[in-house]
Automatic annotation (TrEMBL):
Pfam families: DHH (PF01368), DHHA1 (PF02272). GO terms for molecular function: nucleic acid binding. Residues 236-322 form the DHHA1 domain. Residues 19-160 form the DDH domain. Gene3D superfamilies: 3.10.310.30, inorganic pyrophosphatase (n-terminal core). Transmembrane segments: none annotated. This is Bifunctional oligoribonuclease/PAP phosphatase NrnA.
């Protein structure tokens, strides 16, 4: 990361007293953890900072320090002149937060690690080599010479643990582990965070997992593990779409599968899909064909349409990508 990118952040932070912090729709541990960690750091600098997210907070992340202060756009009564957009490759990933809650001349700082970040923002810290946006927020907090409190540490550690899949994905570097170790030294409770992210499931989320597992199909000669959740299944499980977060990893776990896919009907004719790759297929590319995005090995999308139709369209797009990526298969 160039020093120039960092240098612009100090005057940005020192130049305002009130900040809005936002991140992407359907927030994950990195979106929420990096937002709340940055909020705590700005408060330690004597600033006011409010985290505003378009989507509801997933229950699994409610343990994070400061989670109870997160607001939805409709609850925000003032307009901010300075904002941070975190973990988002474009402004519209934050839903309507930026368009509703900022003054027309507001300045926006972007901190992100997505390939294909679109260049939005006045001040930018974008590094696709970082495991998580939380890792970049850690760098920024060090630059600002804010002591890492236990609260900051636990939020940022959650972001890193979440985006590395518990230090299992290919983005887990030695630097990632060093930053994580520093955060534990500063008070992040590693077992508490792991318990919350990976070992605590609500009844509805376990029931929807069961139904999703039963829907597993080996497609394209076993190269794609595909799971489908219909509105009816959500109703049967008493579950909401956020209860299905993470289920796609089980589709990817199918032995021999290069891609795991979870297609969900979240409302009538409203389909959400998650894709996970073993590294041999660029699922970010496939998702972008449907207006979505993410990373090479993990991406998502939302489209209008019928559940079965979207699933078949996605399988065909994945097959095209697999045949392009590996002519032997
Ligand atoms: Mn992230």
């Amino acid at each position: 990361m160039s020093d120039a990118a960092f240098e612009a952040f100090e005057p940005f932070v020192l130049g305002a007293n009130e900040f809005l912090i936002t991140s992407h729709v359907d927030p994950d541990g990195d979106a929420v953890g990096s937002s709340l960690g940055l909020r705590a750091a700005l408060q330690d600098l004597g600033k006011t900072a409010e985290v505003v997210l378009e989507s509801p907070l997933p229950e699994a992340l409610a343990f994070l320090p400061g989670a109870e202060t997160i607001r939805r756009p409709a609850e925000v009564t003032k307009q901010y002149g300075a904002a941070f957009l975190l973990d988002s490759s474009s402004a519209d990933r934050a839903g309507q937060v930026l368009s509703r809650c900022l003054t027309p001349d507001a300045r926006v700082a972007v901190i992100d690690h997505h390939w294909g970040n679109d260049g939005y923002g006045h001040v930018r810290l974008v590094n696709p080599e970082a495991s998580a946006t939380a890792e970049l927020v850690y760098d920024l907090i060090e630059l600002l010479r804010v002591p890492i409190s236990p609260e900051i540490a636990e939020c940022l550690y959650t972001g890193i643990l979440s985006d590395t899949g518990g230090f299992r994905y290919a983005n887990t570097s030695s630097r990632t582990l060093r930053v994580a170790a520093r955060l534990v030294e500063h008070g992040a409770r590693a077992s508490r965070v792991a318990e919350a992210l990976y070992a605590t499931k609500t009844g509805p989320s376990l029931r929807i997992l069961g139904l999703a597992l039963a829907s597993l199909e080996a497609r394209s000669g076993g190269r794609i593990g595909a799971m489908t959740i219909s509105l009816e299944m959500f109703e049967k499980a008493g579950a909401k779409p956020e209860d299905a977060d993470g289920i796609v990893q089980y589709a990817k776990a199918l032995a021999g599968a290069r891609v795991g896919m979870l297609v969900q009907e979240v409302a009538k004719d409203e389909i959400r899909a998650s894709l996970r790759s073993d590294g041999s297929v660029d699922v970010n590319q496939v998702a972008s064909e449907f207006g979505g995005g993410g990373h090479r090995n993990a991406a998502g999308l939302r489209v209008r349409g019928g559940l079965g139709q979207v699933r078949e369209d996605l399988i065909r797009a994945l097959e095209r990508a697999m045949n392009g990526a590996s002519p032997s298969s």
